[in-house]
Amino acid sequence: MHYEPGYAYPLIVWLHSNGDDQTQVQRIMPAISLRNFIAVAPQASVGDAAAGYYWQQTAHGIEEAQAAVVQAIDHAQLKLNVAPHRIFLAGYGAGGTMALRVALELSQSLAGVVSINGPLPSGLTPLRDWMSCRQLPIFWAHCRKSRDFSETLLCDQLKLLHVGGFSVTLRQYPAGDELPAQSLSDLNGWIMESFASTVK
Predict the structure, then answer these.
(1) Could you tell me the pTM of the whole model?
(2) At what angle do helices 24-32 and 181-199 cross, to 10 degrees?
(3) Per-residue H/E/C for 20-88
């Protein structure tokens, strides 16, 4: 809203949850901000319009997701004025897990990663290059009543990230597996605070 071509905007690359599609970004951005960011959303390659699309945690699925993220960033930079040092990868549910996975591979190109109720990926050694990616800021939102992402799993994975020296901001919400609106507002605040800390 009120796009200013002379201003370099931060970019949010949004990865939808399983069973949805890239249009999810149109529903979540009003709760984040329609003024502060440019947003773009690739779509998972597996699925269909009737049942939705799904991120696959396989070698091929990860490669496709990473390529889709890179292509989405390139597309946004071609069309609009994007601040290259303020690109954030974010996702919800399985999209949050894939966002973490891809961000660990592309950490040098990103300003941060956001996972809303998406656990750390497992299998295919996602933390194999942890020394080079642990400087990447992580915003992790967890739903306490989630059936897909238990508090026990959260605690185990949080310990792993702390041992690895990662910078993690954790927020918990009294919700099930639905997307908490407050998490989107908090995402906006976290990104804007990261700008303020770099200016100081």
Answers:
(1) 0.93
(2) 60
(3) ECCCHHHHHHHHHCCCCCEEECCCCCEEECCCEEECCCCHHHHHHHHHHHHHHHHHHHHHCCEEEEEEE
